[in-house]
Design goal:
single chain; 580 residues; mainly alpha; 40 helices; 72% helix
């Protein structure tokens, strides 16, 4: 009615209702009161603004009301209020923005009206690091907490992450990370872990010394704070230096301890994710072995959400770098649940579980269990999956299975259409799929009957088509596959006729010693055919192979010398025939 005192009294009366109740929230919206509350924000009466924001802060927990506030232009007014001199008013505006800006359009509105810079400004105060706060510092800390809450909501937008960085938010977040108050630490770490999905933030988290404080807060009493710290480490630990910092600051032990909180699935997902990424480093795997992490992870393999299982299986796969951990997985009964997961449909989980099963299959004892549980058949069936990551991971897993199975040749032949499926994958455009399939063919070709079958399916021309690749990983496995495929019929001649020999000679110019070794072995096998010897000689193979005869790698030595010997023998035979 135009009377500020009456308005404040009315607002106070409204505040007495239970505004957390949906009926009250919707009543405010339906009677048109929401427009009045937003209009009050645009007045000069601070008490009316505060009263209105207190109500809006409560009711904006409701999704429909959040959208309505954004539609009515409430966010633009709240962003302006962030310039107010009144601390309480700024806090309420920031907290309400934090509630409303949970959907993309609202996040965009805050950015476009200069809200990000203003919210970052709320973090800039002198209370950081103080243990006992003066009343003035306490107000500053509360203002920073509200600003961090709003930034946390806004940081779900990629453009807002960049806006926070440009506004100087990273050093301010790093400063607040050093404080001991969980109320502000939670939104600060929440913002950091949200922003850690971008490379610039991951670099900043490492270089600004934030890892130490993230590790420190893993031992906090607050589970939400622990979860966000673990989540930030999960996202940052792709980088080796960061993984080393986590270990150096003693972060691996608290992560191991947090696995016991298996009831809190969000916390468990973050912790298992952090362990997975940290386990990429061998030094960290050794520490995890001390803390019995593998045993705990195996115990968590059942009755978990897929989000958690992806991380658990990923961590087990990385821990398999150590032979002792592969034995531990078998001893603790981890193989049956892992094989069972091969029947799932989650793409990320299938990539991880195939890798882990493949790593475990390098042990003959484990391979017996995998075979008994029909694990190899399940891996083979995943080659039909349209996802190239799953195809590649399954093909890599099949390699040790063939290597360590008791009667590998018979096992492979028992899969109806299995060999044709493998050969057809050589038509893939994905380099990792091609390399993994070449690896599988290398092992399949060790059995003469299977080599005959894949030859009939056209393996020679398909391998020859790949010979012009510049990818060293593919070159190595392709050369190994060609070497083993030479052992059947006239395959050596066929490789020459398919123009695979000249490109192989170029592989010897690679900087990768493993490519040299595989190529020398392939060339040695191909040099058993006179026409191939001529092609090799024309492409300058002798000059490239001669230094390799003096290699410390005996396999490379023998293959290089054998190839040169075959070429020399052909030259001598030609001279003898020519000159008698």
């Amino acid at each position: 009615g135009g009377n500020p005192t009456a308005t404040v009294i009315a607002l106070c009366s409204m505040k007495d209702f239970n505004l957390a109740q949906e009926t009250c929230q919707m009543a405010i919206r339906d009677i048109g009161c929401l427009e009045v509350l937003i209009n009050l924000l645009d007045t000069e009466e601070i008490k009316c603004q505060i009263g209105s924001l207190k109500i809006l802060k409560e009711i904006s927990q409701n999704t429909l009301i959040r959208h309505a506030i954004a539609d009515l232009g409430g966010l633009e007014i709240m962003v302006k209020i962030l310039d107010s001199l009144d601390r309480e008013l700024k806090c309420l505006a920031a907290e309400t923005i934090a509630n409303v800006a949970r959907f993309k359009r609202a996040q965009r509105t805050v950015r476009q009206h200069g809200g990000i810079k203003r919210l970052v400004g709320l973090l800039d105060c002198d209370a950081v690091g103080s243990t006992s706060l003066t009343p003035y510092q306490a107000k500053d800390t509360e203002m920073a907490r509200c600003g961090a809450l709003a930034l946390w909501s806004c940081s779900k937008s990629t453009k807002n992450k960049e806006a926070i960085r440009k506004a100087g938010g990273i050093p301010l977040l790093a400063r607040w990370l050093k404080c001991s108050h969980a109320s502000i630490l939670t939104p600060v770490v929440g913002t950091l872990q949200e922003c850690a999905s971008t490379p610039s933030y991951r670099l900043a988290i490492k270089t600004e010394g934030m890892i130490e404080y993230l590790v420190k807060n893993l031992s906090s009493e607050h589970e939400e704070l622990q979860m966000h710290c673990a989540s930030a480490i999960f996202k940052c630990a792709e980088d080796k230096e960061t993984r080393d910092l986590v270990r150096q600051h003693g972060g691996l032990q608290p992560l191991s301890v947090l696995l016991a909180n298996s009831e809190n699935k969000q916390l468990l997902a973050a912790v298992t994710g952090a362990i997975w990424k940290c386990a990429i480093s061998e030094e960290n795997v050794a520490k995890f072995r001390e803390y019995k992490v593998v045993e705990t992870l195996v115990g968590l393999l059942t009755d978990q959400p897929e989000e958690v299982l992806i991380n658990i299986v990923g961590a087990l796969g990385e821990c398999c770098q150590e032979t002792v951990n592969r034995s531990t997985i078998r001893r603790c009964g981890g193989i049956p649940p892992l094989v069972k997961l091969l029947t799932g449909t989650n793409q990320a989980l299938l990539v991880n579980v195939t890798k882990t099963v493949g790593a475990c299959a390098t042990e003959p004892e484990t391979m017996i269990i995998i075979d008994r549980l029909d694990g190899v058949r399940l891996l083979w069936s995943l080659l039909k999956n349209p996802n190239p990551d799953i195809q590649a991971s399954a093909a890599w897993a099949i390699c040790p299975c063939i290597d360590n199975a008791k009667d590998a040749g018979e096992m492979v032949r028992s899969f109806v259409g299995g060999l044709e499926l493998v050969v057809n994958l050589l038509k893939s455009k994905n380099k990792e799929v091609l390399a993994s399939v070449c690896g599988a063919i290398t092992n399949i070709a060790k059995d003469e009957e299977n080599l005959a079958v894949i030859t009939d399916h056209g393996v020679v021309p398909l391998l020859s088509k790949l010979a012009n690749t510049n990818n060293d990983k593919l070159r190595r496995h392709l050369a190994e596959a060609i070497s083993n495929c030479c052992m059947w019929g006239r395959n050596r001649v066929a490789f020459g006729e398919s123009n695979a020999v000249a490109p192989l000679v170029r592989y010897l110019r690679s900087n990768d010693p493993s490519v040299h070794r595989a190529t020398a072995q392939a060339l040695y096998q191909l040099s058993e055919d006179p026409n191939n010897c001529i092609t090799m000689h024309e492409n300058g193979v002798v000059k490239l192979l001669l230094p390799m005869v003096g290699s410390t790698d005996e396999t490379l030595q023998e293959a290089a010398a054998g190839c040169i010997a075959n070429i020399r023998r052909l030259a001598l035979a030609t001279e003898k025939a020519k000159y008698g």
